[in-house]
Specification:
Helix content: 25-40%
Largest sheet: 6 strands, mixed
Mean pLDDT: 77
Number of strands: 16
Low-confidence stretches: 1-12, 288-323, 417-433
Number of domains: 3
Oligomer: single chain
Shape: elongated
Strand order of the largest sheet: 1-5-6-4-3-2
CATH architecture of the largest domain: Orthogonal Bundle
């Protein structure tokens, strides 16, 4: 599980926080740069993606993409997917520490010369293995293309860049995703229709475009005029070069079916004669987290930041002078039972004019100001003797919440229990897994 820490900015450009020796620049974009680095204690090569908080802070969608990328990558552990090792944060930057994939982008290789059908099949088999794994865990990449497919020193494919990915929880009541995203030449026709789409089906379409490119050396749908290209995609107008085998042409027609209901599924891909040739199912060990019966929710260091449904990474993104208006967290050395008991006792005191309106697992909802203020307080167990207390404003003005929490409820917990601050500024507790 990736570890998240807040760390001071490094002073030496070649020694990041005394942990990584930073090397050459591998690539850069508008909001991030990627460097090669070496773990000084293990000697392992890694890639470090450096994101400037200042550049993304003004754009909510960019912040959301980064939060989602962290959330998604932490749950993926597959031989053909780039692994996220840890996330570090300083006052000004966020650092993704990931696998270093020595061979670079698949795009660079196919740009030099198209692949043989056998080599294309090998890469495609590895791609489908990774995509099927993602889908089984409710993750849809939504931006599969050769630029996001890397090749390691052994010639094996690794899927990267989950910044535009979606999870099953993002689907609407109709069971579909509705966000328009992806790279134009690889986007599925149903995304263009703006009527909602199945994340798994659009990934399969993109895989079909990738397979075509690997074998042909160029795109199936291409036009200098973007709208003209979209029309070709929508109608499924493409031509296979003469060197494509009949089996490959037939297979591509199923991958690039414009009707998503008629498009081949990952399970059907695994049974296709063209795909199956020489295919060996990837075997790997993955540690599966067990579902726990107790009501107290256990948390690890990553979950301390990202456990909530909204994925609150305020500790990574907030400036140090940012005041909390909607929520706060405390890290307490106490049992969940004791924390809840303290909150209930405080609410029952006549002078506080609070009512315990609702109790849910290890948490309470406190109502005050004649129902005009409701604060939800939930407790999550981090270790046997350590809990995270999260307070959220449910109803009421932000100032009322801050006054009640900062001046009354929080001091009760801090005064009555051994406590330390967690989550009100850019400082996040440095707790390892």
């Amino acid at each position: 599980m990736p570890e998240i820490q807040n760390v001071p900015d490094g002073n030496n450009n070649n020694a990041l926080f005394g942990k990584y020796e930073v090397g050459r620049l591998l690539g850069c974009g508008a909001f991030a740069k990627v460097y090669h680095a070496r773990n000084v204690s293990t000697g392992q090569s890694v890639a470090i993606k450096v994101i400037s908080k200042k550049k993304i802070s003004a754009t909510t969608s960019l912040m959301s993409n980064i939060k989602r990328e962290i959330s998604i990558m932490r749950r993926l552990n597959h031989p053909h997917i780039v692994k996220l090792h840890e996330v570090l944060a300083s006052k000004t930057k966020i650092y993704f520490v990931m696998d270093f994939v020595k061979g670079g982008e698949l795009f660079a290789k196919v740009a030099k010369a198209r692949f043989t059908e056998d080599l294309s099949r090998r890469y495609f088999q590895q791609l489908i293995s990774a995509v099927g794994y993602c889908h089984s865990r409710g993750v849809f990449h939504r931006d599969l293309k050769p630029e996001n497919l890397l090749v390691d020193e052994n010639g094996n494919l690794k899927v990267s860049d989950f910044g535009l990915s979606a999870v099953r929880g993002q689907v609407r009541h109709d069971g579909l995703l509705h966000t328009l995203c992806g790279t134009p030449a690889y986007v599925a026709p149903e995304i263009l229709s703006k009527k909602g789409y199945d994340g798994a089906k659009v990934d399969v379409w993109s895989c079909g475009v990738v397979l075509y490119v690997l074998n042909a050396g160029y795109l199936p749908f291409n036009d200098p005029n973007l709208m003209a290209m979209y029309k070709k995609i929508y109608k499924g107008e493409y031509r296979c070069p003469k060197w494509f085998s009949l089996d490959l042409k037939r297979f591509l027609s199923r991958l690039l079916a414009t009707d998503p209901e008629k498009r081949i599924t990952v399970d059907e891909i695994l049974r296709d004669p063209w795909f199956k040739k020489g295919y060996k199912e990837v075997s790997f060990y993955e540690e599966v987290e067990k579902e726990e019966e107790p009501k107290v929710k256990d948390m690890n260091a990553f979950d301390l930041i990202s456990f909530s449904s909204g994925l609150d990474l305020s500790g990574l993104f907030a400036d140090s002078d940012n005041s909390v208006s909607d929520g706060d967290r405390l890290l307490l050395t106490e049992s969940p039972e004791k924390v809840v008991e303290e909150m209930e006792e405080y609410a029952k005191a006549d002078e506080n004019d609070l009512r315990v309106r609702k109790k849910k697992e290890w948490g309470v909802e406190l109502e005050g100001e004649n129902g005009n203020l409701v604060i939800g307080v939930e407790v999550y167990r981090l270790t046997d003797g350590l809990v995270v207390v999260e307070a959220k404003r449910r109803i009421g003005e932000a100032e009322s919440f801050k006054d009640m929490w900062n001046n009354k409820l929080r001091p009760r917990l801090v005064g009555g229990l051994t406590a330390q601050l967690a989550g009100t500024s850019s400082q996040v507790p440095q707790i390892t897994n």
